């Protein structure tokens, strides 16, 4: 208590520091990790049972289909898993306009009933890096998965699709074209 006021002395209100980890920040950084990768131009597309949708939770392994699943690098632990894909899609703004600049697909198996899954984290990281480096690696996708991804990219923003390189359009072209 302060003697003059007869009231208890209040402790200083210091702002609480967050314990969260920021993967993407718009503050300039000059210390350890300077030059780190900016993931703000990358989105995650999930392809599950021939349906493609955007789910940016996949960036931290918290997509709708990944939640509650224990993943292992041993494929034998997920014998009844259904094949799902995470597609990393990088967007770039150029003088000609915005476009889909990189896209890479990563396979995973998910058994929702057993709450088990298979994926190789190193493959996901390498494929994310490939998308950031403006590469297209979609050859592992089946025809229906390619069609679903193509449909989603066009519906999401047809102008971006039209501005995108022929390499992407060829990678997702229907069979026989």
Structure description:
It is a single chain. The protein is α/β, with parallel strands linked by helices and 177 residues long. It contains four helices and seven strands; from the N terminus they run ββββββαβααα. Strands 1, 2, 3, 4, 5, 6 and 7 form a seven-stranded mixed β-sheet that branches. Strand 4 (82-94) and strand 5 (97-111) form a beta hairpin. The chain is globular and about 60 Å long. It starts with 41 loop residues before the first strand and ends in a 6-residue tail after the last helix.
SSE blueprint:
Layout (H helix, E strand, L loop, with lengths): L41 E7 L2 E4 L15 E3 L9 E13 L2 E15 L4 E3 L2 H12 L3 E2 L5 H14 L1 H6 L2 H6 L6
Parallel strand pairs: 3-6, 5-7
Antiparallel strand pairs: 1-2, 1-4, 4-5, 5-6
- What is the global morphology? globular
As residue ranges, the low-confidence spans are: 17-25
Give the helix tally: 4
Elements, N to C (H/E): EEEEEEHEHHH
Structural class category: alpha/beta
Q: Approximately how much beta-strand content do the residues carry?
A: 25-35%
**What is the radius of gyration?**
22 Å
Tell me how many strands there are: 7
The largest β sheet comes out as: 7 strands, mixed
Helix percent band: 10-25%
User: What is the average of the pLDDT values?
Assistant: 84
The span between the termini is: 83 Å
Features:
4 helices, 27% strand, single chain, 177 residues, alpha/beta, seven-stranded mixed sheet
């Amino acid at each position: 208590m302060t003697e003059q006021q007869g009231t208890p002395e209040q402790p200083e209100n210091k702002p609480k520091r967050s314990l969260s980890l920021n993967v993407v920040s718009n503050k300039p950084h000059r210390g350890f990790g300077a030059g780190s990768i900016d993931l703000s131009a990358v989105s995650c597309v999930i392809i599950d049972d021939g349906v493609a949708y955007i789910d940016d939770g996949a960036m931290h392994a918290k997509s709708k289909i990944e939640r509650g699943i224990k993943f292992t690098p041993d494929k034998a632990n997920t014998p009844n898993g259904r094949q799902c894909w995470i597609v990393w899609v990088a967007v770039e703004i150029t003088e000609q306009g915005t476009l889909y600049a990189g896209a890479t697909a990563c396979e995973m198996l998910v058994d929702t009933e057993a709450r088990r899954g298979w994926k190789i984290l190193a493959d996901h990281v390498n494929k994310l890096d490939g998308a950031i480096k403006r590469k297209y690696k979609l050859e592992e996708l089946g025809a229906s998965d390619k069609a679903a991804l193509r449909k989603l990219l066009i519906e999401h923003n047809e102008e971006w699709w039209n501005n995108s390189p022929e390499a992407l359009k060829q990678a997702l072209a229907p069979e026989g074209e």
